[in-house]
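S.,

Sequence below, as promised.
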Amino acid sequence: MFDFDNVPSRRNTSSLKWDVKDSELPMWVADMDFPAAPCIKEAILRRAEHGVFGYNVIPDAWYDSIINWWDRRHGVRFERDWLQFSTGIVPAISSMIKRFTNVGDNVVVLTPVYDIFFHSIENFGRHTLESKLLYNDGRYEIDFLGLENALSHPLSTLMILCNPHNPVGKIWSKDELNKIGELCRKYGVTIISDEIHCDITFDKKYIPFISVSDVCRDISITCVSASKAFNIAGLQSAAVVIPNPVLRNKAVRGLNSDEVAEPNCFAAEATIAAFDYGESWLDEFNDYIKQNKRFAKEFLKDSPVGIVDSDATYLLWIDCSKVTDDAENFTDFLRKTTGLYLSAGNQYRGNGKCFVRMNIACPRSTLQDGLTRFVKGVENYKSNL
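The prediction came back faster than expected:
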């Protein structure tokens, strides 16, 4: 048994999330408050005790840990040659955009979606082409007609897929992934599948994009990492999975050219520990988050907001359309009046202007505090309109 109810304070630790006023409660960025699994801490301490922190190469155990995890946990067998180390998924995506598109090209995304995709696309002179998800009765679906229109544009050369989807928490079905693959094949579009949230799932299994069909495997680049599920993002470690040798050669050259293909001395050790020895911790963590989601849904059942049902991630995507159509203004109000710091849905585009995102990877007591502030803020916001 692992203790998820008691966590160390992260204030005054140079934490991106917790570098806020003492009165504020940050529940925005996707960074959990739980310490990493004990096996990861032990591996890092062993490495630190050596005392020499020079340049590193990727050990065989890093490849083996990833291959065995995806085989055992997700039913797909990676080949060693498919795997390339990267210092993170965002650096890898940025590198791939530069390598597989030209200035002025379109990169297609399903919105609302992780906002850093837009930065990676637009910072390099490419254009984001949104295919907006359909939202009905509290659930999101892909508008395949709209997606085909976006992919068929002559300047659409790349699609970034989020599987499972952040922020809506959707696990795409095999049929949906197959349709995406077939459309991208039809229009000559390469796919980057960001699968960083794949290990934070509950009652529905995530399906790796490359496992769906030969087409999906051959036209795609998959980005995976232990960082989100095991809370080791600060150690900067990810894997880029590229079965197609033509795509792989281009991708590897891009990652090396951008200098994001070399590990720090703890990166590989943490990943190996997570995937080789962290499974029981992860299972208990997922169960705790599942209970947190139930707690939040019950807490908010009589409020004018609604939590979108999700299959994955420790993020709540909250429909505030009965309260506001400007989530940015709403979250600013919440922070100023209650201290609760949430992510405004506007930044995820699509229909995000009526939503907020809340991170619930925290002890239940912290979640209760956050939800109490949220309900109070909603009431005050409505009365001030």
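Residues 279-299 form the longest helix (21 residues).

Coffee later?
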